[in-house]
Amino acid sequence: MITKLLDGRLLAKEIKNKICKIIEKEILNKKKRIPHLGIILTGNNNSSIRYVNNKIKECKNIGIKYSLVHLPINTSEKKLLETIKKMNKSPYIDGFIVQLPLEKHLDQNKIILSINPKKDVDGFHPENFGKMALNMKSFFPATALGILTLLEKYKIQISGKYTVIIGRSSIVGRPISILMSRKNNPGNSTVTLTHSKTPNIEFYTRQADIIIVAVGIPNFLKGKMIKKGSIVIDVGIHNHEKKILGDVDFHSVYGKASYLTPVPGGIGPMTRIMLLKNTLKAALNNR
Length: 287
Ligand code: GUN
Known about the structure:
Elements: E1 4-5, H1 8-28, E2 36-42, H2 46-62, E3 65-71, H3 77-89, E4 95-98, H4 108-113, H5 126-133, H6 142-153, E5 162-166, H7 173-181, E6 190-194, H8 201-205, E7 210-213, E8 231-234, E9 238-240, E10 243-245, H9 250-253, E11 259-260, H10 267-286
Parallel strand pairs: 1-11, 2-3, 2-4, 5-6, 5-7, 7-8, 8-11
Antiparallel strand pairs: 9-10
The protein binds guanine.
């Protein structure tokens, strides 16, 4: 079977050009301030530092302003809450994110709850998350939005299809399960959300039309776990002996799936551009 690769890098570039045009038309021509993203990073987690650096690179690339606050590993919850309060109040910051995961001594729920939902461009605040589940307008988490946009670009129908998601994280698995199953377009997919306590995951994946893998384990999904012609979305990214691997075992899935996202160059660039799309949306909404 010929497997078509879903090119997230190319689509992200197209969206970048659209964002640049909107910034020119709606912001620069009207002599308004250009959008400004705040980023709060705590500690020295290598993956988080790499993610944040990539987000900054994308801001520079597109001409969106950014402010990075990098707090040390032993930062108190009080200090982090104060930093968030400043970003909530700042007339210059349109939207901001607190890079996750946080150190164990910080209460992640308390931190997310303290973000002004109107500036929550990650879409992680319960107000935005709840609105998303209730079919109301809100910020949608960037990876979920990136997956839907990439599927739409390749005219892959999700309505009526059976989707299996592996991984129930609040950042990827759960939001994409909500968006795919909503009574909306895109939506109307029949969704099974599997996770580390699901016995016999391949029982589900072998029946799936669409499989989204966000489990954080390199090469987790093998070709023998899927049906021929399925559509496979790989959200994972791992550095392994100078190679970059996804959550999907590319070699055994390639040739059996009809569509597959490469790693790198699939969901990663889509996630980064969707964060900036949300930042532009915040700038247009809030001023
Ligand atoms: N950590 C991994 N992905 C993300 C993301 O999309 N947003 C934030 N804030 N932290 C993350």
